[in-house]
Amino acid sequence: MSNARTEATHRGATSECLLCAQELSKFYPDGRVQALDRVSFHVNRGEYLAVMGPSGSGKSTLLNMLGALDRPSSGEVFFEGRPLSEFYPWDRFRCEQVGFVFQSFHLLPALTALENVQIPMLETRRSAAERASAAESLLELVGLASRRHHLPQTLSVGERQRVAVARALANNPPLLLADEPTGNLDSAAAEAVLDLFARLHGEHRLTLVVITHDPALSRRAQRVLRLKDGRLIADEPVEGAGPVSDQ
Amino acid sequence: MRLIHVAYKNMQRRRLRSALTIAGVSVAVAAVVALVGAVGSFERQLLAVFQNRGIDLVVAGATTVQRLQSNLEEDLGRRIGRLPGVKHVACALIENFSFPELDVLGVVVRGLEPNSFVLNEVALIEGRKLEPGDGDVMLIGKVLANTLSKRAGDQFELVPGRSFRIVGVYDSYNLLESNSLVVPLDALQDLMDRRGKATVFMVVAAESSQAAVESLAAQIKPLAPNIDVLPARQYVDSLIEVRLARAVAWFTSTLALIVGTIGVVNTMLTAVFERTRELAVLRAVGWRRATIVRMILFESALLSMLGAVVGCAMAWFLTQMLRLTPTGRLISGEIGWYVVAQGCGLALLVGIAGGGYPAWRAAKLLPTEGLRHE
């Protein structure tokens, strides 16, 4: 498909499709390692998508491209029907449209939970009081209002991940990208995070793309993509899940 | 929460390293404030000696490296006095004396004619002024009198075997004057075996407009070979003693500033390296490169400004210590706000210069590389 046709196709899909990956390939600089090989799929608005696959299958590379942290060697990502290249500078795109959740939380150790949640808001025009108030609300949403003045190292791993989720939601993005969000958590803490994701998806209509090895997490999603050696080998709905779009 | 708050908390995370960096910057600031400040204070006091008496022009020897060793003919003063645009002219022989046995070095002794206009404004607190026909007598500044425990009526041996009687003690807000001696011109000429000689002539023009003063300077210049006729500011600037002191102060301060800057660079580079993944996360959540740069610069500027505060305190202490040295009488001990501002300004420059490269390194970090960093 030519670039022009591809773009036209995705421009036409804006009402339903939030994110479209079109023929994404990624070669690392030496040119020999191909992390992704012509991967195409779409994510509808309000959809909960899990991406699974063995280590080295290209999951994180894919997530980085969807979140504009990295650019494909070929192919394009479309967001609301427009190619990501149109969203440059991508830091602004990440600030406004995407929330990231990492396996290791990556909270700033010198800042309290409340301050960590405000970090992405420092790039917005909100006043200091508005930022603090919004961060309080988000910590309430993730059930950590009482822990807002705690430093990350004084929180449990599950609480840290919930603070990280609150941070990802700081600028009210339509899309949440999570890379192994339960990978460092015990089963109880993982369950709490999965419950939180389910609530964000069900009640707040958030679109979630979650990389995981965790079958429990993939069962909570509506659709699962499976990658192997950089190729998309399966794109299948989860049995018993609800409809894949909010239409 | 604001960006500066994040920078402050980051600085607090590495207390020992931050404290050492602040110490490095504070030494640099202390050097600037204490040394450059002391030299500046000396220059201002020297200039005030001329300006407070309305002296428009100073005539000194052009060929001498050290202007205080000028050897002009005393008669030149009379010829200058006859020029139509001259209101006053004073002839002065200036010498430096040291009294190591009293632990007092660098005392300026001015030989002046008793009726010189320069002595008109002297504020006597004890005794009398110089009078025509006085022999080996002297006026002594209040600070020097206190240092030497002398008062009017006492004798003071200027050189071994030749005592001068103190006829008066004068006060001056100018530390340089308050630390000096005034003796009759002919007595000093005789003492130094420089009869008929002078070091400088101080001229007050009848009209003090710039054009009139320049015209007067042009008339004085041809009166003798190898003389400079300079406005007071230019004369003070041209003194080799002042220039050397200024150069040494700035050289020492610049070295200290370079060391301080290297300390900041080292601290901030280490911080950037240690926080590679953290910086990548900040980029991932949408921070612009400019915000990363601002945060790193805030951190380095905070370090350097704290260094400035500590440095100013150190400078005050250092100045008080310098006053205890044999030549410390000439140091006022006061630290002007402009010297503090200069020190703080340089500290800020050290912070920005020291944080600049680490900030650039941090900003060019790719988020995907940073997230992989262990």
Layout of helices and strands, plus pairs?
The complex is a heterodimer of chains A (247) and B (374).
Chain A: H1 3-11, E1 17-27, E2 34-44, E3 48-52, H2 59-66, E4 74-79, E5 82-83, H3 90-97, E6 98-101, H4 113-118, H5 128-141, H6 157-168, E7 175-179, H7 187-204, E8 207-211, H8 215-220, E9 223-228, E10 231-237
Parallel strand pairs in A: 3-8, 3-9, 6-7, 7-8
Antiparallel strand pairs in A: 1-2, 1-4, 4-5, 9-10
Helix pairs in contact in A: 5-6, 6-7
Chain B: H1 3-13, H2 15-51, E1 57-61, E2 72-73, H3 75-81, E3 86-99, E4 104-112, E5 123-127, E6 137-141, H4 142-148, E7 155-159, E8 162-171, H5 175-178, E9 181-184, H6 185-192, E10 197-198, E11 200-205, H7 210-220, E12 227-230, H8 232-238, H9 240-274, H10 276-284, H11 289-322, H12 337-363, H13 367-372
Parallel strand pairs in B: 4-9, 6-8
Antiparallel strand pairs in B: 1-11, 1-12, 2-10, 3-4, 3-11, 5-8, 6-9, 7-8
Helix pairs in contact in B: 1-11, 2-8, 2-9, 2-11, 2-12, 9-11, 9-12, 11-12
Give a structural overview:
The complex is a heterodimer of chains A (247) and B (374). In chain A, the strands form two sheets. A six-stranded mixed sheet of chain A has the order 6-7-8-3-9-10. The relative contact order of chain A is 0.18. With 247 residues, chain A is α/β, with parallel strands linked by helices. In chain A, helix 5 (128-141) packs across helix 6 (157-168) and helix 6 (157-168) packs parallel to helix 7 (187-204). The two termini of chain A are 28 Å apart. Chain A is globular and about 45 Å long. Chain A has helices at 3-11, 59-66, 90-97, 113-118, 128-141, 157-168, 187-204, 215-220, and strands at 17-27, 34-44, 48-52, 74-79, 82-83, 98-101, 175-179, 207-211, 223-228, 231-237. Chain A has a single domain (3-246), classed as P-loop containing nucleotide triphosphate hydrolases (Rossmann fold). The model of chain A is unreliable at 1-14 (pLDDT under 50). With 374 residues, chain B is of the alpha+beta class. Chain B folds into two domains: 3-45 and 243-364, no CATH class; 63-225, no CATH class. In chain B, strands 1, 3, 4, 5, 6, 7, 8, 9, 11 and 12 form a ten-stranded mixed sheet that branches. Chain B is elongated. The chains are: A alpha/beta (247), B alpha+beta (374). The A-B interface holds A 64, 67, 69-70, 89, 91-96, 98-100, 102, 106, 108-111, 114-115, 118-120, 122-123, 128, 131-132, 167-168, 170-171 and B 1-3, 5-6, 9-10, 12-13, 277-278, 281-289, 291, 367-368, 371.
